[in-house]
Amino acid sequence: MRKPLLIFYCLIVYALAQLAWWGILLIQAEPNRKAMILGETAVFVFIFLVGAYHLQKALNKERKLHYQQRNFLLSVTHELKSPLASIKLYLQTIQKRKLDEKQKKAFIANSLKDIERLDDLVENMLIATQIESKSYSFPKEAFNLSDLVEKVADRLQVHTCSSQLINADIEEDITLTGDKFALTSVVTNLIENAVKYSPPCAEVDVKLFAANGQINFQVADHGIGISEEEKSHIFEKFYRVGNEDTRKTKGTGLGLFIVKQVLDKHQAQIKVKNNQPSGTIFEVTFNTYAS
After folding, report:
1. pTM for the full model?
2. Cis peptide before 199 (omega within 30 of 0)
3. Mean pLDDT across the stretch 110-129?
4. Count of CB atoms within 10 A of residue 186's CB?
């Protein structure tokens, strides 16, 4: 990408130099039309520079997207390879060694956790592709949101830490009309993000409650937090908090992109707040609900 940009800048300098040269020749040839020549030259230079600015902006955007896509492919490769290697090891151990029933059940349970992790990754990629191509229809149905949040929190609790990590405060029997599959992805991504960017065994608070004709869903962590500058970018596709060279957390940069797109389709709002003393709070509000 550097070579095309260098050529682009050289062409701009060459074009401006040629313009200045031809302007001087015209003024020398017709000195009585100097004001008109300078005025037209100024207009041309202005239009040329505006065009060059927007072209450079488009090239920088394309370069950034290319960089993000490269990191996305590397992340996906790692996200796929890690659980597959783990599953393979568990199955080979079961096949080659004589294990008691308790050990077998533990290995199979761990393999199922990794399969669920792969399933989440595939679902994220599928729904992100369908949303971007506008081929996803968001079918609506009434379902129990309380049960959904509780099941996701319980499943992710098993993935994280032996001690209590996810504190779930869920009001019972809250019913929402919406796309259950897509909203499951929203709940999963928000809780997974909180766990991912938190220190080991730190608490993540998950709340669901209804008040004033609205449904409120909150996920709060005590992790690294999000800077004010990055808050305006976190819902962009492939964007990930932090520096790509130093970031240690896993992820593809699709989670929050999916969250925002799905919530927009449900006329729901999401706010990003700073937690105290550290961390982030994601607050989702559905304007209407069915009881």
Report:
1. 0.67
2. no
3. 83
4. 27
Q: Identify the burial level of 166 via C-beta atoms within 10 angstroms of its C-beta, where 0-12 means exposed, 13-18 middle and 19 or more buried.
A: buried
66 burial level (CB within 10 Å; 0-12, 13-18, 19+): exposed
- 33/157 same-domain check: no
Tell me, rounded to whole angstroms, the distance of Cα 221 from its chain centroid. 17
Last residue of a domain, one of 17, 44, 65: 65
Q: Is pLDDT of 246 > 60?
A: no
What span, in angstroms and rounded, lies between the C-alpha atoms of 50 and 53?
5
Q: Could you tell me the residue range of the domain that residue 46 belongs to?
A: 2-65
**Cβ proximity of 175 and 169 under 8 Å:** no
Which pair of tokens denotes residue 46? 């202005």
Provide mean pLDDT across the span 266-278: 90
Domain for residue 108, yes or no? Answer: no
Domain of residue 239, CATH code: 3.30.565.10
Question: With contact defined as beta carbons under 8 Å apart, do 41 and 18 qualify?
Answer: no
Q: How many domains are contained in the chain?
A: 2
95 occurs within a structural domain: no
In a domain, 237, yes or no: yes
Q: Tell me the pLDDT band of 159, cut-offs 50, 70 and 90.
A: low
